[in-house]
Specification:
By secondary structure, the chain is mostly helical. The protein has 4 helices and no strands. The protein has helices at about 1-30, 35-40, 60-80, 85-110. Helix 3 (about 60-80) packs antiparallel against helix 4. The mean pLDDT is about 85.
Length: about 120
C-alpha cells in the first residue's frame, strides 16, 4: 500500500527541493544593491500616501462579506445549469426556492441599509 503513495511523496520532495533551492540559489548569487527607491513600498503603480495603519470603516468589510455571500450563489448555479435537463421540473423548482431565499436575504440587507455608502 505504501508503494502507491511513493509517486506523491516523490513529487512533494521535488517541489520542496525546487522551492528551497531556488530561494537559496537566488540569495547566494543575486545582486544586492539596495537603494531608497528599491526599498520604498509600491502598490498598483501609485506611490504610497499616508500611513499603512489607516482605519477603514466597517462598511467596507460588510460590503466585502455580502459580495462573497451573494457571489457564491453563482458557484451553485453552474452544476445546476449543467444538469438542467436531467433534473427536470424538480431541479427547476429547487433552484427557484434557492434564488427566492437569496432574494429575501438581499432585500433584507438592502432594507437594513448595509449597501449604502454614506
Amino acid at each position: 500500500m505504501l508503494d502507491s503513495y511513493l509517486p506523491i511523496l516523490t513529487l512533494i520532495v521535488i517541489a520542496i527541493a525546487f522551492a528551497v533551492g531556488s530561494t537559496v540559489f537566488s540569495r547566494l548569487i543575486g545582486e544586492k544593491k539596495p537603494s531608497e527607491v528599491k526599498l520604498a513600498p509600491y502598490e498598483c503603480g501609485m506611490p504610497p500616501v499616508g500611513s499603512a495603519r489607516e482605519r477603514f470603516s466597517v462598511k467596507f468589510y460588510i460590503i466585502a462579506m455580502l459580495f462573497i455571500v451573494f457571489d457564491i450563489e453563482v458557484v451553485f448555479m453552474y452544476p445546476w445549469a449543467v444538469m438542467f435537463k436531467r433534473l427536470g421540473m424538480f431541479g427547476f423548482a429547487e433552484m427557484g426556492v434557492f434564488i427566492l431565499i437569496l432574494l429575501v436575504g438581499y432585500i433584507y440587507v438592502w432594507k437594513k441599509g448595509a449597501l449604502e455608502w454614506e
